[in-house]
Structure formats: structure tokens, C-alpha cells
Amino acid sequence: MKRPFLSRLAGALSLVSLGLGLAAAVLAFLGRLPEAKFKTAFLLASIAWFVLATGRKLGGSARGPSSG
Amino acid sequence: MSERIARLTAAMDSLYEFDREPVSPDKLQSGGKFAGLFAGEHVAATEFVIGAFFVLHGVGARDLILGLVAGNLLAVLSWTFVCAPIAVRTRLTLYWYLRKIAGPGVTLVYNIANALLYCVLAGAMISVSATAVGLLFGIPVPALDSVLPSNAGWVLITLALGAAFTAVAILGFSKLSRFAEVVSPWIFVVFVAGAIAALPRLGVAPDLSNLWDVATTEIWNGVAAAGQEKFGFWHVLSFAWFCNLAMHIGLSDMALFRYARKWTYGLYSAFGMFPGHMLAWLASGVMVAAIGREMHPGLMAYEAVGIAGLAGVLFAGWTTANPTLYRAGLALQTVTPGWPRWRITLVAGAATTVLACFPVFFLKLLDYVAIYGLVLMPVGAIVFAEHWLFPLLKIDQYRAEKRGWAFNAAALAVWLGTLAVVFALPVHLYFRWLPGWVIALASYTLLMAARRSR
Questions:
Q1: Does B10 touch chain A (CB under 8 A)?
Q2: Touching check for B255 and chain A: CB below 8 Å?
Q3: Residue A68: what pLDDT?
Q4: Which of A27, B128, B182, B268 could bond to B45 as cystine, CB 3.0-4.6 Å?
């Protein structure tokens, strides 16, 4: 994940996975996704987020202000 | 005695040496960094508890929404007009600025007070995580009025979690800090998705036609749970304003804003307040209503989003307890010169773990947050007076530094005196900080002006 392209790609895909988790919740609310399936979908989207966002983090080097 | 204080303050200074100099212009950060920092920092384990407690305290839906909008707006304005301008003008942390104003002795007392308060806060976060892990083992969460642990299982879970959190804080603080940056956007999604998914259980129709009806009758229906005090608009407004009192009015976020290009960067705190201290609190209110108003963060998240919810509560507690433990250790290190970093973190972690066994700290979290802010607020008033009022009134600034005082007696007297007055004030705990701040500001200015005339 040292290359900026892969890092950016991982960042974009991680956001997509978060979006999918939210979309699953909306579908469950609308009654189009049973509760059990929603929970499984949310778990999978969460795992995808952790894998991709961690990959992006390992590839990036941006730092925020220190809380010193 | 004075030799001991000199030794302690020298040790303390060496710990904070790296940020002794004002921030140079090339180290200033963009506004986006501040937005990200605030957004990440204010979606924590405590949000699962605070939003739920508003439901249990019988806040009405209208009062809650208006109170949160107004209170969070006041918090943002406090960062913008009180904390950020002083930070940008001095480019110093509160630690070094307070040292110039009140002397190293008062700074030492401030550090110790801060460390103890941090330990209690980290303990509450461990307790919140324990509700998630305990659910897996069928361990009941203590009742709302519990002070002492109600069962051995709860004690075992909190001890195990406290030990794990402490070990990670010792072995891999920086790695977990990076993990926390990954976790915080996801935790926000857990809140939002959990609330959306819980709405049908409360009877909200897919077209949202009865959303307000459900909100006012099933969630924030204005009926307090048994044994809980009834809250209204002013309680919510005041709580949302003082929730981070030590950071804005208390000025500890000078450590962040000294990196800001302009004082107006204080407005970026809105990125933490409105998603974290408004949406997340509303979401946890929905989730607690969906499980029958039981104060059980683990169960709330599990029922709403399943296993991922349990992980959310566990990670939220873990990633927010970790920096809190680290800060407590750093502050305590000042009174244990020569101790290695790991040993002081171990001591802070052990104390925190023992505190976490007592459910009172998470079950009375709202009151604790109020007390935390109250204890540190007078220091902010003292610094504010010295920075803004003294030049206007032609009172000599930074006399502790210029005259080499270890203790600015006026600052210490005002701090302790203000605390005595605010804890005796015959008003609700949530409404005491503002008169206290005015008392501290006026009394410190008068005392230092009187010293000038002498």
C-alpha cells in the first residue's frame, strides 16, 4: 500500500463499504431487507471498511495537528 | 518542601519540553485537519450512554432538539471566541501558558487533578465496553441506581478489559491511535445505521409519516424512568454546552488551536459537535427506546446492528480509553520523576480498572461530566482574565513568571474558592459553571489588582 494509487483506491472503496452499510440499514427500515440479512450485510460492510481503511492508513502519511 | 517542588516542576517541564516553544508558522495546519480531528474525537463510547440517558431523564423531543442545537452552538462559539483566540495569539499549550500565569506549583496541582479526572473518565469508558463483552457471557448490567458492582461476572469482565486496555496503552499506544482514526468514522455509521434500523421496531412507517408521533410518544415522551430526575430544555442546552467545558472554556484545547492559522478555526469544532453530540446522541436515544429503555449500551447496539454493534461499543470504549489513559499517565508522570513510562501507565491503568468495576461512574456519567468541567473551569477563567482583562485594566501580566513564584497564591485561592462556592450554590449541578466562571474571573482580577496597588 505504499503507492498513492492503491492508497487512494483503498480509500474510495472503504467509503463505498461504509455507504453500503448505511444503505443496508435504509433497506431494512423500508422493509426490503429482513433484519437478519441486514445485520449480516452490515457486518460484511464493516469488515470491508476495516480492511480497506487500514490499508489506506498504512499507505498514507498525512498527520493532523498534535494534541501535545 | 520548596526543593521537592522545584524537583517535581523540573521533571514536569522536561516531559512537556517538546512543546515549550510557540508553534512556528510552518507548522500551522489547514482547516480540514481541524474538521477531521473534531469529527473523530467526538463520537466516542460515552455517546452511547449520554443520548440514552436523555431518554431515561424524560426529555421531550422538542426540548431535546432545540436544546442540542442551542447548546452545541454555544459550545462551538466557546471554542471560537474563548479558546481559539488565546491559542492563536500565544501559540502555546495551556500547560506553558498557565505556568507563566500561575507558576509551576499551580500547574503541578492542575496536572494531578487532570490525571485523576482522566482516570475516572477512562474507567467509565471501560464500563461501557464491558456491557458489550458481558452480553456475550450473559452477565447482567448493574441497575441504574447501582454504586457498587452487583455481581462477580461484572467485576471479572471490567478487570479483564481494564488489563487488556492498559497492556495495549503500554505496548502499542501509537498503533492503537492509528487504529482509532480508522474506527471513528465507522462508529459514527454504527450510530446512524443502528438508529435507522431500530425505527421500525418503534412503529415508524416506511414513509416516515408518523415519525414525529413516534418520537414524542415512544422515544422522547417526557416521562422520566423510575428514580431518574426529569430534564427539560435548559438541562439539555446546558449539558451540550458544558460537555467539553474543560476543552473550550477551560482552554485545554489550546494544545490543538495553537496550530490554527486563524482563530476562526474554532468554528470547525461544529464538525465534532453536530454529528457527535447531536446526531449520535439522538441515535442512541432511538436505540435505547427500541430495547425498552434499559441502560445497556451493548444490548442497544447488538439489537440494532448485530455483532458489528457489539464490536462498535467495544472499540468505541477501547479507542477512547486509550488516549485518556495515556494522558493520565503523562500527567501523573510529573509526580513520579524517574519512573519509566510503562510503570506510570500501569499505575494509571490499574487505578482506572478498579474504578471501572464501580458502575456508578458510567451510570452517573452526566453528573460526572458536569463535575469534570466544573473542577477545571476556574483555571480557564484565570487565564482568560490574565490574557484579556489585565492589559485593559493595566494590571501587570505574567507576574508568576517574572517574579519566579512557584505558586501564584491568588490563582490557587481563586481556583479553590470558586470550587467551594459552586459546589454550595443552591442551583442544579448543570447550571453552576457559568456563575462560577464569572466569580473566578472577577475575583482573580480583583485580587491581582489589589496586589498591584500594594
A1: no
A2: yes
A3: 33
A4: B128
C-alpha–C-alpha distance, residues B343 and B335, integer Å = 13
Tell whether B390 lies on the interface with A, counting CB pairs under 8 A.
no
Q: How many residues does chain A have?
A: 68
Select the highest-mean-pLDDT range: B38-42, B286-290, B338-342.
B286-290
CA dist B325 and B345 (Å) reads: 7
User: Nearest residue on chain A to B202, judged by CA atoms?
Assistant: A29
pLDDT per residue as tens digits for the range B53-101? 999 999 999 999 999 999 999 999 999 999 999 999 999 888 889 989 9
At B249 the pLDDT is: 96
**pTM of the shown model:** 0.89
- What's the mean pLDDT in B264-290? 95
Per the CB < 8 Å rule, is B255 touching A68? yes
Which of A46, A47, A49 would best serve as a mutation to test chain B binding (most B beta carbons within 10 A)?
Answer: A46
To the nearest whole Å, the CA of B36 is away from the closest chain A CA by 8
ipTM: 0.87
Q: Which of B439, B333, B433, B312 is nearest to B112 (CA)?
A: B333
Query: By the 8 A CB rule, do B245 and B430 touch?
Result: no
Q: Do B305 and A26 touch (CB under 8 A)?
A: no
Q: Would you call A26 and B196 a contact, using CB atoms and an 8 Å cutoff?
A: yes
SS (H, E, C) chain A: CCCHHHHHHHHHHHHHHHHHHHHHHHHHHHCCCCHHHHHHHHHHHHHHHHHHHHHHHHHCCCCCCCCC
Q: What is the rounded CA–CA span in Å between residue B46 and residue B291?
A: 18
Q: Which of B21, B196, B251 to mutate to test the interface with A (most CBs of A within 10 A)?
A: B196
What integer pLDDT is reported at residue B13 of this predicted model?
Answer: 65
- Between helix B297-305 and helix B173-198 the angle, nearest 10°, is 60
